[in-house]
Amino acid sequence: MGFDASVISGVVGFIELEFSLSKIQLGWAVASLALSSTFAMLIAGPLSQKVGRRKLLTWAAFLYLISALGSAFAPDFVMLIAARMIGGLAVGAALILAPMYIAELAPPAQRGRLVSINQLNIVIGISVAFFSNYLIQAWSQSGSATAVYLRLDVWQWRWMLGLEALPALLYLVGLRFVPESPRWLLMKNRPAEALTILTQVVGPEQAKIESAVITDSLSDNTDADSIGIVELFRPALHKVLFVGMIVAILQQITGINSVFFYAPMIFEQTGIGTDASFLQAVLVGLTNLLFTIVAMLFIDKVGRRPLLLAGVSGIAFCMLTLAYGFDSARYELPLNALSEFSEKAEALSSVAGQTFRSDVAFREAISSSAGEAWYTANEARLMQISVSLNSYLILFGILGFVASFAVSIGPVMWVLFSELFPNHIRALAISVVGLVNSAVSFLVQLVFPWELATIGIAGTFLIYGSFALIGLLFVAKYLPETKGKSLEQLEIELVKS
Questions:
Q1: Is the model's pLDDT at 340 over the cut of 80?
Q2: pLDDT tens for each residue of 443-485
Q3: Domains defined for the chain, CATH in brackets
Q4: What distance in Å separates the CA atoms of residue 115 and residue 130, rounded to the nearest whole number?
Q5: Residue 173, number of CB atoms within 10 A of its CB
Q6: What is the 8-class DSSP label of residue 331?
Q7: What angle do CA 465, 469, 474 make, to 5 degrees?
Q8: CA distance 417 to 431
Q9: In Å, what is the CA distance from 171 to each residue of 87, 234, 427?
C-alpha cells in the first residue's frame, strides 16, 4: 500500500512538464488514487462480509499489479489517471481489511502491536518508494550504458511507477499462506474451521473460550449480511461513530499525505535542488519507519490515548514551526544569475535584485516576466539560487512532524478502527469511517499544489497546524482508552452501556 501511494512523490515533477499539467491537474495525478480508494472503502467492508477478508485482499493484490503496469506504460495523462485509480481500489480495500483482519485474529494483549504491523508495512513501502525514486533519479543522470539502454534519462517516472509490480507480486504470493478470519468464519456458521485457526493462535483451551464468547456476541445481533447503513447510526453507536469520524478526519487534515506525496516538491522550496530534495525525501521515509516501530513497541504498554495526545501535540508544534520558517524566508533572484538564464535575461532583468517576502509573490513575478511554463521547468534551480531561509529549521519541522505522526495517529487510527465497533457491524463501520478518511485525503492531496501557488507554503502549513490544535482538544476530551481489552469487552463498555 505504501509504495503504491507514495511513489508518485518522485513522479509529479516529470509528468507536470511532460503532460503540461495545471496545478489542479497535478493534484489530480496524485489524488486520483485516493478518490477511487474512497469508493473501495465504502464497499470493501460489506463485500468482505460475503466473500471473506482473505479472498478480497487477494483481489486487491491483483489490482495492485494491474495498476503498476498500467501506470508505467500510460501513453497520456488520462490513462495514467485511470491506472492510478485502479491502484486506489486496491489501496482502499487493503486499508480497510488488513487492520480488521489482524484485529479479529490477534490476542487482546498484543492486538495494538499486531494491527500496527499493517501500518509498519505501509511505512516500509513508503520508505522503499522514496529510496527507489532517489536511486532512479541518480542513476538516470549517471550516463552509464545500462541507464542509457533502459532509457532512464527520459523514462524516470515510468520506471518509478513500474517498480510497484514487485511488491504487488510479493503481496499476492504472501496471501496464499494466511488463514481466514476466525470471527468471519463464525459469522458464516463454520465453527470447526474457526476453532482450528483460534487454536493455532491462542492454544486449545483459550480457543474454546474465545469461540464461545464470539458466538455469544454474534447471537445477540442481527445477521451481519443483513446489516444496513441505518444500523450504524442508531443511538447506541453514536459515541464510537463520532470518535471514529473525528479521528479519521484528523489523520489526514493535518497534511501527512501532502508531505509524503509532495516531499521532493516541498524540499525544493528550501533551495536545496532536485537531487538533494530526493535524498531528503528518503530521510522522511526512514524517520517514518523508525517512529512507526517505536509506536509498535509502546502502543500496548502506554495505550492509544497517551500516544495520540503526545503525537498530535508534536504535529501541531512542528506544523506551526514550518509555517514560521517559511514565513521568515526571503526570495531574491541575483543579478549575476541573468547570465545563467540568458534566453530569459531581458525578461528577468526587471525582477532580478528585488526582494520578495513570500514564495507566492516571487513565483508570480518570475512567471509574469518569463512565463509560467518556463518558471515550472526551472523552479528548482530558481529556488536554489534565490531563497534565503533557515533550512535546518525546515528540516527539523518536517522530520518532527513525520515522527509525531508515525508514533501516534498513523498506526493508532487503524488500531482504534478495529476496536471501537461491535463484531456484527465492524466491517461496515470501518468502511464508512475509512471512506471519510480517504475522502479527506483526496481533498488534501488535490488542492495542495493549488495551495502552494495561491496562499503559499507558509499559509498551507499554518492551516495544517491549526487543524492539529483543534484535533488535540478533541483527543483530550473524547478519546477512550482501549488497550488490553477484548473486542467483546469493548463492545459492552462503549456500545451497550
A1: yes
A2: 888 888 888 889 999 999 999 999 999 999 999 999 888 888 7
A3: 2-328+391-496 (1.20.1250.20), 330-388 (no CATH)
A4: 24
A5: 10
A6: E
A7: 140
A8: 10
A9: 14, 38, 22
For 65, the grid coordinates are: 499489479
Helix (H) or strand (E) holding 387: strand 387-388
User: Pick the residue with more confidence: 490 or 393?
Assistant: 393
The three cell numbers of residue 406 are 508515525
Cα–Cα distance measured from residue 83 to residue 76, given in angstroms and rounded to the nearest whole number:
11
Q: In this predicted model, what pLDDT tens digit does every residue of 315-334 receive, in sequence order?
A: 999 999 999 999 999 999 99
Lookup: cell for 355: 526582494
Q: Which amino acid is at 440?
A: V
Dihedral Cα 229, 94, 64, 293, nearest 10 deg: 150
Instruction: Please give the radius of gyration of the chain, using alpha carbons only, rounded to the nearest integer.
Output: 24
Residue with cell 480517504: 438
Q: Look at the pTM and tell me if it is higher than 0.85.
A: no
C-alpha cell, 323: 509555517
Confidence of residue 492 (pLDDT cuts 50, 70, 90): confident
- The residue type found at 371 is G
Burial label for 443, CB within 10 Å (0-12, 13-18, 19+), is middle
Instruction: Report angle CA 52, 58, 63 to the nearest 5 degrees.
Output: 125
Name the β-bridge partners of 331: 356, 387
| DSSP secondary structure, 203-262, as one string | -HHHHHHHHHHHHHHHHTS--GGG--HHHHTSGGGHHHHHHHHHHHHHHHHT-HHHHHHT
Q: What nine digits make up the cell of 414? A: 487503524
Grid cell, residue 162, equals 513500474
3-state secondary structure of 190: coil
Nearby residues of 88 by Cβ (< 8 Å), 6 or more positions away? 32, 33, 34, 35, 36, 37, 38, 39, 40, 67
Q: What is the dihedral of CA 346, 348, 352, 355, to 10 degrees?
A: 150
